[in-house]
Amino acid sequence: MSRRIALQTRQWIIDALLELLANEPFSQMSVAQICHQAQVSRNTFYRKFADKRAVVQAYAEQLAGEYEDLVQERTPQTFNALVRLPFEFAAQHRTVLHLLQQNSLLEVVQAAFNQLGPRLYTAVDLPWHTVDSPEAVAIMMQFFTGAFWNVVMHWLDDSSRSVDEMTQLVTSGLAAVTPFVTGKNKG
Prior knowledge:
Elements: H1 3-21, H2 31-38, H3 42-48, H4 52-74, H5 79-92, H6 94-102, H7 106-123, H8 134-157, H9 163-182
């Protein structure tokens, strides 16, 4: 089987799981249903994935890759632009992210983004990227990734605010605590 066909088959399985997720809880979904939807055999499924959770993980890795491409393409030069980007990205993928959240699978996406964080930090040259220690970068990026996903999960449940409003809320909140973090406020 050519690499292109193998990748296409893998994508059919991912797409099938996501299509089924719109109507079937993940916990009740079977590999047989995914195979039927993707029009592949069980043997083909198991050559590509260990189980149905591995399919979600593959999708999460795709999302992280798309986000990495977006950040590198845009290379945000202001902190506001950087904060806006994840909300734009989440808005584009809102339907699927919401389905994953409803099925307690958003943690799989967060794990993929946790892996991406340090790579993004070193790959994109931004004025505030001044931390040199790989361990400090990993911890800092996990902190921000976790915070972002908590905000996104809340936003997915109550999406009455726009991307601009969410960006403003986050940046103004961070600006309010910055003096305390930097020690410039004695309070």
